[in-house]
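Wed. Picked up where I left off yesterday with 2TM domain-containing protein. The coffee machine is broken again, so keeping this brief.
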Amino acid sequence: MSTFNHTLADSPDEQLKMARRRARMKLGWYLHATVYILVNLGLTTLAALQGRHWAVYPAIFWGLGLAMHGAAVWISSPRSALWTRMVDKELRAMQSLNKK
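Structure written out below (tokens, as returned):
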């Protein structure tokens, strides 16, 4: 059985705490993405004025970091929609095996 309790059995205080945490995580990612776009637009402008193409490197590597941050927020954190569906699927599979 899973150790994650993702049902509506949580108390309202726990639900509020989790909702605030998830909102903070999402807001943090939006801020990270905004800074990424603004800084990389500036770097691209600077590189273009110099007639060079070096700005692609910070955009790629920072973009990888932004993608990992996004995966942590939107995909892999407990109680995300994907995580909840996967846990539910595993619980159903385990329950069907126990019935046989």
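Quick read: Confidence is low (pLDDT under 50) at residues 1-9.
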